[in-house]
Specification:
Blueprint (H helix, E strand, L loop, with lengths): L1 E5 L8 H12 L7 H17 L17 H11 L1 H21 L5 E8 L3 E12 L4 H67 L5 H23 L1 H11 L27 H8 L1 H21 L6 E8 L6 E9 L4 H71 L4 H36 L23
Antiparallel strand pairs: 1-5, 2-3, 3-4, 4-5
Length: 463
């Protein structure tokens, strides 16, 4: 319900003055809140690197001699998903200004007409939300912008991980092909040995045929591995944000691992402090808390103030006006407060669920790293040397007639299996390191266009 109070007409201001006030108000600028200032500074700081002057910066040159860092920076600056998250954040920062601003003033016009125009009354009206309402609305928008920033940072880290994943898989694909080619050369030597043994009557032609069958099997495996390069290259290209019509990027020759000290006792604490998914959830809790404060402000009435000028009267009269809303619908107000409180509880529950999920991920990836490290140590230090020695013994025994061909073939396949297992363990180890560093610990690559860790961004403070 709205009540309006009209006051007596007084000869106060001429029409010209009222119009002048309207023109002045049209160029007004509101007072920025502290949260708004910090959010804008944060966005401008990131924008200077990520989108200077609103344009994409010069991308690093990609070549075979380029470092992995160059490819990561290219991906982060070029990936459309990251760009979309950045502009969502930028839009949410500007929304703070909208929420804390007063409503636009309204020009009104009223006239009494009988046979002629009896009165001509232009006017100006202004709405004023109740005390604290604009500040509370700005607090909600500020917390929302904080959450949007962490969505942007998480998109950046997801892109870096996608690039590293395809980079490692391509690198170790080459290692698998190399192992199979070396094994193929070994089987060719075994086949020649079987031919020699067959020519002197020591073995049957069956041994030669078995060696040829093994050659065909390994050759097919090499072809399959080479063919699997195409989808991996497509993933690598997609991680860089390149379109289908763009030329395929070169692969860097130098292999670079992910440095991470997994013996540190503070890694889990670091994950809780820096993980962008958790930080986004925390910002959602703050947004829900600000929404509760805004819901309580529904009890406070709003006001509108205006003035009308009778330009036909002589002397000219001015009619001041004052209106006030009456927040009488208590069930509606109670529902708004209950809705906001329920939203906060839901946000807190999602935060707890994310913390639990992150703890599980941290444990799983840490185990994968330790498991891969143990497997690598077992393979490189014990199993592979023994498998090579076993093959040499089997070859000597085959020449002397003490070992049959099936045992020789089994020794060759055992060595090949251990070599491929070593490559697979290295892949798993690198992927676990990359996921721990980027997606769980939230550690951005060097020179990533994100807020510096030594700053205190808006998300760390109260709105």
């Amino acid at each position: 319900m709205k009540a309006a109070f009209h006051f007596l007409r007084l000869p106060l201001l001429p029409t010209v003055s009222a119009l002048a006030v309207a023109l002045i108000l049209a160029g007004c600028v509101g007072v920025r809140t502290e949260g708004e200032k910090r959010a804008q500074r944060d966005q401008e700081l990131v924008g200077r690197t990520y989108r200077p002057s609103g344009e994409r910066p010069a991308l690093p040159k990609l070549g075979t001699n380029a470092l992995l860092h160059d490819f990561l920076l290219f991906a982060m600056l070029n990936q459309p998903q990251v760009e979309a998250a950045y502009y969502d954040w930028a839009a949410s920062v500007r929304r703070i200004t909208v929420e804390r601003s007063l409503p636009d003033p309204r020009l009104t016009f009223q006239s009494d007409i009988a046979d002629t125009v009896m009165s001509l009354m232009p006017g100006l009206m202004m709405d004023f939300p109740g005390p604290g309402k604009l500040k509370a609305a700005a607090g909600v928008a500020t917390a929302e912008s904080e959450a949007r920033y962490f969505v942007f940072e998480n998109a950046m880290l997801q892109t870096a991980f996608a690039l590293k994943k395809s980079y490692y898989e391509l690198h170790f694909l080459d290692a698998k092909v190399s192992v199979n080619r070396e094994t193929l050369q070994l089987v060719e030597q075994i086949e020649k040995l079987a031919r020699t043994q067959n020519e002197v009557g020591k073995v049957t032609l069956q041994d030669v045929l078995r060696a040829q069958i093994e050659q065909e099997r390994i050759t097919t495996e090499i072809n399959n591995l080479e063919d699997s390069r195409n989808p991996l290259l497509a993933q690598f290209k997609a991680a860089l944000g390149m379109k289908a019509e763009d030329a395929a990027p070169p692969m860097p020759h130098k292999f670079e691992s992910t440095p991470l000290d997994l013996t540190s006792d503070g890694l889990w604490a670091t994950a809780l402090t820096r993980n962008p998914r958790l930080k986004a959830m925390e910002a959602e809790v703050r947004r829900a808390d600000a929404s509760i404060r805004l819901a309580y402000k529904a009890r406070v009435p709003d006001f509108n103030v205006g003035v009308e000028v009778d330009a036909k009267a002589s002397p000219i009269f001015v009619t001041p006006q004052l209106g006030v809303t009456l927040p009488i619908w208590r069930d509606k107000i109670a529902a708004q407060i209950a809705e906001a409180q329920a939203g906060k509880r839901a946000s807190e529950a999602r935060l707890s669920a994310e913390q639990i999920a992150l703890a599980v991920e941290f444990a799983e990836k840490s185990f994968m790293f330790r498991e891969a490290t143990r497997n690598l140590e077992l393979l490189t230090e014990r199993l592979l040397p023994k498998a090579r020695q076993s093959l040499e013994v089997a070859q000597s025994g085959y020449v002397s007639g003490k070992v049959d061909f099936l045992n020789l073939l089994d020794a060759e396949r055992t060595l090949l299996g251990f070599q491929l297992s070593e490559v697979e363990a290295r892949v798993q180890r690198e992927l676990a390191l990359a996921e721990l560093s980027l997606l769980i610990l939230g550690t951005p690559p060097a020179n990533a266009p994100v807020l510096p860790p030594n700053t205190i961004p808006a998300k760390e403070r109260k709105p």
